[in-house]
Amino acid sequence: MRDHSRAHLADCYIRASVAGRLTSAAIKQAITFPLAAALLTTAAVLAAGCSEAGSEGAGGSREVVVMAASSLTDVVEAVSAADPNVTAVLSGSSTLVAQLSAGADADVLITADAATMDRATADGSIRGKPAVIATNTVVLATAPGNPGGVAGLADLARRDLLVGLCAPEVPCGALARRALDEARIAASVDTLELNVRALAAKISLGELDAGLVYGTDAARAGLPTVNAPELDGHANDYYIASVSAEPAPAVAAVIDAFTEPGSVGAEALRVHGFGQP
User: Fold this and answer.
1) Which H/E stretch holds residue 90?
2) 20 to 30 A Cα–Cα from 2, which one of 16, 68, 176, 193?
3) What is the pTM of this model?
4) Is residue 28 part of a domain?
């Protein structure tokens, strides 16, 4: 199971390992192309006989399955490296909530906004009390060298540019849409991505001229950013909660690793540019 936790997009883990273990090429494709990730996830959920969250690994240690927003990949990796019993499932928040609602096994959920956590709480998938662990801002990012000559947020309405946003059901997409609506800018959007990592990758590769991504993802990908005062004050809070109302000690310890001052997760959030709640 640790091989699955090393695969940083572990959607294939949720119910089964899709006719054995996914190859590294398949995992890379799933990370790069959200549709492929969705198909792999569906196949995994429909398959039978997988390990359940909370199962004991070799040596009797308790596995803790953490479902987390893809923008937290580096942070969850840090926690997983410090605790080998953590298995990460990384995807867009709305996808994770849908999987959890459909019966996917997990111990901890971390979403990139309140709305997706609220949905998981409302449908009974989450019974623990959510807590805010970080914030993240939205920025206007461009392809390397800014070949489209993007000078401000209003340029996203230019039809000669290739523009990308996250899908509106994804936290980064909902945040971008609010900012654009408040600025009264009708962006000429060419693609809507299911997670922010996929959007940042397309901008980085020059497949898009510009897009609205989280500041942390722009920094991670080394993307140029353009000053856009209209985006000031637009940020999302990240929420963490246990699936169970009474989490096992191992699960509580993992939550502490994200919430306690000076913890591995808290330090990783700081290092990777997330704001404090």
Assistant:
1) strand 86-91
2) 193
3) 0.79
4) yes
